[in-house]
Amino acid sequence: MHEQGSKGCLIIIGGNEDRKDERRILREVAREVRGGKLVLATVASRRPEGYFDDYQRAFSDLDLGDLVELYVEDRVEAGDRSKLSVLDDAAGIFFSGGDQLRITSQIGDTGIEAKVRALYERGGVVAGTSAGASVMSETMLVKGTSQITHRIGDLHMAPGLGLIRDVIIDQHFAERGRFGRLIGAVAHNPRVLGMGIDEDTAAIVRGDRIDVIGSGAVYVVDGTHVTHSNVAEGQSDCALALHDVRVHVLPDGNGYDLKERRPISPDN
Amino acid sequence: MHEQGSKGCLIIIGGNEDRKDERRILREVAREVRGGKLVLATVASRRPEGYFDDYQRAFSDLDLGDLVELYVEDRVEAGDRSKLSVLDDAAGIFFSGGDQLRITSQIGDTGIEAKVRALYERGGVVAGTSAGASVMSETMLVKGTSQITHRIGDLHMAPGLGLIRDVIIDQHFAERGRFGRLIGAVAHNPRVLGMGIDEDTAAIVRGDRIDVIGSGAVYVVDGTHVTHSNVAEGQSDCALALHDVRVHVLPDGNGYDLKERRPISPDN
């Protein structure tokens, strides 16, 4: 496991986080932003209308310095100086949901991506929910059937933003029955740790340490000790075989050490 | 792990087995019955009409000696000599789907249950699908929310028929997103192995060996090496924590050794 280099903080949310009541996760985002400016990137959505109002309401009494929207219609816009300057004095960015491929195809290798990376490296916050969560890994899950045992070949992956290394993220995890597809992704290369995040639940990454908050759980799928897999031999419609996968179920208060690949109990 | 004592064979099906086309699993049931008589026990259902016709059609060209229905309206009927005699010369029994509590509450500790056990012990076949699968374990899963991370306290278990020891069975597994609840059941007592069976998939148990057939997979959840669990401490609406669970994904051709608690690759 490589060390995660940045001084910043990732807040990776499994989608559908509480935006009305206790707002446990958004409160944590605001706390990390420390009264600074948060940029809401709605670029994952083809119809971003409503997202900003919704989050503005949710964050209204949570002591943000400022909340501003960043939307780009296409790649050309992602190089616009006016778009780029929004990120200059930001303390954090929050990617809302939609389609993870829209995020990477619109801002991948643009000035915006460089600014997001710079923000993270100088100690800023990068948060993302649903599609905005998936996009944080180096290789991201794009598509794959839920609620069925994973079929070899039925999994689409693509390069993500690469803010967290050697991890592949899935969201809406228990809610959409995605255990099969995450285990399938890990089978492709057990170097990569699977991280399945439930709705209204977040994995907060600071350096090599992950802390879990929210009402569900984070599932870590570790293929290090896998003894048998049929991923390379099987037909593409063939059901996955995988022996000796290690799984950790981590609810609020639990953590995970990415370097040691070990779960952390609430009392540690 | 205790040794499984019987000379018989269990065919534990995750529900919704193919009854029209290839009928891989029903073909295996018929093969094990070896031209003998198969009793279709529709007792799990409150409205058993149609089940018998459906299975009669499905088994029609599969070389069964005879297919007869066994239904009991209530516990009194479960002691009827005419009902009991149906099982005397049977080579196998097949429990169709419905409600597992109906099976155990109607025939538990009756003459029928004794005859099923005797059939199994003399080398007969006990098959069951969906509710008929759950009922085979000593402690069976009755109810528990699917598609959500398991909440401590949200799991109802009851004594089953006890044909397989130290195993707890769940069905419609990937299809209904039941990983959370099976892992929750295992957390209660890691002596018990979790066995989640997909639809159109069967675990065939002969002695200590399990073989998997069908289009999905059997998930074995082994809690032997669990290092942390909050089952006893947590509030009942609290999400489950469980560290170091071992999981095996076993599709068609894979197996499992119950005594050694080890998966078996297709080439063994």
Automatic annotation (TrEMBL), chains A, B:
GO MF term set: carboxypeptidase activity; peptidyl-dipeptidase activity
Superkingdom of this protein's organism: Bacteria
Coiled coil: none
Keyword set includes Hydrolase: yes
Record keywords, A-Z: Carboxypeptidase, Hydrolase, Protease, Serine protease
InterPro entries: Class_I_gatase-like, Peptidase_S51, Peptidase_S51_cyanophycinase
Database matches in Pfam families: Peptidase_S51
EC number, as in UniProt: 3.4.15.6
Catalyzed reactions: [L-4-(L-arginin-2-N-yl)aspartate](n) + H2O = [L-4-(L-arginin-2-N-yl)aspartate](n-1) + L-4-(L-arginin-2-N-yl)aspartate
Record-stated family: Belongs to the peptidase S51 family.
Protein function: Exopeptidase that catalyzes the hydrolytic cleavage of multi-L-arginyl-poly-L-aspartic acid (cyanophycin; a water-insoluble reserve polymer) into aspartate-arginine dipeptides.
Protein name as catalogued: Cyanophycinase
Species of origin: Sphingosinicella rhizophila
